[in-house]
């Protein structure tokens, strides 16, 4: 795992190339402040909207983030599992 990347940016069972790790790190840092939409994450992270959605779906598949699908725009958040993995990496 790369030390300069967010601990949850590394996804198991897939290739973790530097550009993907960098993008997921920016997304996770944007989500650390709480729930946000993909558009707001895109603006905050300086990543294209399509790329943010791609990485959010990868993170969701690994249960790091989840989405509230009750109404649009969808609100993304870090899951309890995602917070747990972050705590394990720090301790």
Description:
A 3-stranded antiparallel beta sheet has the order 1-3-2. It is globular and about 35 Å long. Helix 1 crosses helix 3 and helix 2 crosses helix 3. The chain has a single domain, classed as Winged helix-like DNA-binding domain superfamily/Winged helix DNA-binding domain (Arc Repressor Mutant, subunit A). It has 91 residues and is mainly α. The chain is built from 4 helices and 3 strands.
Write a compact overview of the structure shown.
The protein has helices spanning 18-31, 38-45, 49-61, 80-90, and strands at 36-37, 65-68, 75-78. It has 91 residues and is mainly α. The longest helix has 14 residues, at 18-31.
Primary descriptors:
single chain, 91 residues, mainly alpha, Arc Repressor Mutant, subunit A, 3-stranded antiparallel β-sheet, 4 helices, 3 strands, 51% helix, 11% strand, globular
Number of strands: 3
Main beta sheet strand tally, sense and closure: 3 strands, antiparallel
Task: Supply the CATH superfamily name.
Answer: Winged helix-like DNA-binding domain superfamily/Winged helix DNA-binding domain
Whole-number count of domains: 1
Query: Would you identify the regions where 5 or more consecutive residues have pLDDT less than 50?
Result: none
The end-to-end distance, rounded to whole angstroms, is 16 Å
CATH topology: Arc Repressor Mutant, subunit A
Element-by-element helix/strand order? HEHHEEH
Strand content: 5-15%
Strand order of the largest sheet: 1-3-2
Q: Report helical residue fraction.
A: 40-55%
What is the tally of helical segments?
4
Radius of gyration: 12 Å
Shape annotation: globular
The CATH architecture designation is Orthogonal Bundle
Mean pLDDT: 84
- Highest CATH level, the class: Mainly Alpha
